[in-house]
């Protein structure tokens, strides 16, 4: 949904209601306010680390059962009773024969590793992005680097 503003005779400026200015800019729209999907430029390193850790833990936790099934399906020496025809069928068979919680076995170890790993990744990424933006003076080359 777009909102057009401007007086008669002046050039109309298009702005999206959801905060996306579609200008390809690096976080700020034509009015100078920041996009809704970016953290403020004044956000601390700990904020970026917390956001990264939460995103990584959530993503890996949601995908963990799928990865468990995929690993079983790719195994070179599967269980003789395991005749998997599809991912959903494999998940059903694993849960039926080995228990409901079997696809989640080991998720706690993954959470302990994913949190710190993604926290460090996001902190380094945001630090380098800020540094390169200062070096290249907002010319767009920092995103390529």
UniProtKB/TrEMBL annotation:
GO aspect biological process, one term: iron import into the mitochondrion
**According to the record, where are the Solcar repeats?**
43-131
Quote the cellular component terms of the Gene Ontology held in the record: mitochondrial membrane
Instruction: Name the keywords, alphabetized.
Output: Ion transport, Iron, Iron transport, Membrane, Mitochondrion, Transmembrane, Transmembrane helix, Transport
The reaction(s) annotated as catalysed by this protein in its Swiss-Prot or TrEMBL entry are: Fe(2+)(in) = Fe(2+)(out)
Q: Where is this region: Disordered?
A: 1-44
What InterPro entries does this protein map onto?
Answer: MCP_dom_sf, MCP_transmembrane
Q: Which Gene3D superfamilies match?
A: Mitochondrial carrier domain
Its topology with respect to the membrane?
A: Multi-pass membrane protein
Q: Where is the composition biased (Basic and acidic residues)?
A: 15-26
Q: Where in the cell is it found?
A: Mitochondrion membrane
GO molecular-function annotation terms?
A: iron ion transmembrane transporter activity
The family classification in the record reads: Belongs to the mitochondrial carrier (TC 2.A.29) family.
> Which PANTHER family does this one have?
MITOFERRIN-1, MITOFERRIN-1-RELATED
Function, as annotated, reads: Mitochondrial iron transporter that specifically mediates iron uptake in developing erythroid cells, thereby playing an essential role in heme biosynthesis.
The name of this protein is Mitoferrin-1
Origin organism is: Macaca mulatta
């Amino acid at each position: 949904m777009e909102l057009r503003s401007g007086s008669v005779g002046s050039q109309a400026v298009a702005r999206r209601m959801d905060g996306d200015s579609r200008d390809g800019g690096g976080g700020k729209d034509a009015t100078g306010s920041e996009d809704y999907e970016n953290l403020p430029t004044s956000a601390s390193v700990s904020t970026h680390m917390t956001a990264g850790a939460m995103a990584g833990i959530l993503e890996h936790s949601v995908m963990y059962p799928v990865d468990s099934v995929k690993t079983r399906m790719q195994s070179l020496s599967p269980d003789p009773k395991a005749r998997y025809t599809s991912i959903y069928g494999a998940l059903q068979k694993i849960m039926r024969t080995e228990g409901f919680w079997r696809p989640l076995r080991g998720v706690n170890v993954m959470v302990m590793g994913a949190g710190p790993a993604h926290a460090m990744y996001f902190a380094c990424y945001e630090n380098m992005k800020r540094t390169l933006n200062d070096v290249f003076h907002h010319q767009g080359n920092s995103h390529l680097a």
